[in-house]
Design brief:
The chain is α/β, with parallel strands linked by helices and about 230 residues long. Helices cover about 30% and strands about 20% of the residues. A hairpin with a 2-residue loop joins strand 2 and strand 3. The longest helix is centred in the C-terminal third of the chain and has 15 residues, at about 210-225. It starts with a strand and ends with a helix.
């Protein structure tokens, strides 16, 4: 059995009600729910939340909320791993166990059912314990600059004359979803397992949403994405 978990805490300081704020006509969490349901690879699609309002909206769009998140995983210090372990333990208490878990963040409108299906297929083909979607840095971090004592300097001065194409490609987490084999996740207690494969995404498919400017940029990208 496979499980999709969408962690959606109620508190959001920088963007009020961020997880259910309207994004191009729907509560933003609805995109993650619909992608998980429509890809047809999950036996259960659930939302982990401490908010009755989020729970109601999640169920309106087809997700289940079999239990509410505890206080221990609802504060600012709880990690995604803490939340996922709590959910797995709660399901185990009612004798539900799973082979694979996909954690999909509620503010990931670019995640589609096709992307999730492709990720799952790649995970199985590579016989990996985890899959993380990544994006290449648009500028080589090895040529990064820092400020010390009000003066600009290179972090790694040995790269001052290096051409971008001669430096190793580097990537960052897209911050959208994680696929893991449950047994490995519970053993290692981390989403970035030792046997993890990447899934490459483009910058047009990714946008961090931490403030109102990010939100506007995401909506502009989304219009390009769906056209």
């Amino acid at each position: 059995m496979n499980l999709a978990i969408i962690p959606a805490r109620g508190g959001s300081k920088r963007i009020p009600k961020k997880n259910i704020k309207s994004f191009s006509g729907m509560p933003i969490i609805a995109y993650s729910i619909q992608a998980a349901i429509n890809c047809k690879i999950f036996d259960k699609v659930m939302v982990s939340t401490d908010s009755e309002e989020i729970a109601r909206i999640a169920m309106d769009y087809g997700a289940t909320v079999p239990f509410m998140r505890s206080k221990n995983t609802s504060d600012d210090f709880a990690t995604t791993t803490d939340v996922l372990i709590e959910v797995l333990e709660a399901y185990a208490d009612i004798e539900n166990t799973f082979d694979y878990l996909c954690c999909i963040y509620p503010t990931a409108p670019f995640v589609t059912s096709d992307i999730l299906f492709t990720a799952y297929k790649l995970l199985l083909e590579e016989r990996a314990d985890a899959l993380i979607p990544v994006v290449p840095f648009s500028y080589p971090p090895m040529r990064g600059l820092i400020i010390e004592n009000s003066r600009l300097k290179m972090k790694w001065p040995e790269n001052i004359n290096a051409r971008s194409q001669d430096l190793d490609s580097m990537y960052h987490d897209s911050g959208q979803f994680y696929f893991v084999r449950v047994e490995a996740f519970l053993k290692e207690k981390k989403l970035f397992c030792n046997n993890t494969v990447p899934m490459l995404l483009s910058e047009l498919e990714v946008q961090d949403i931490d403030n109102e400017t990010d939100w506007k940029l995401a909506e502009l990208k989304y219009k390009m994405f769906v056209e």
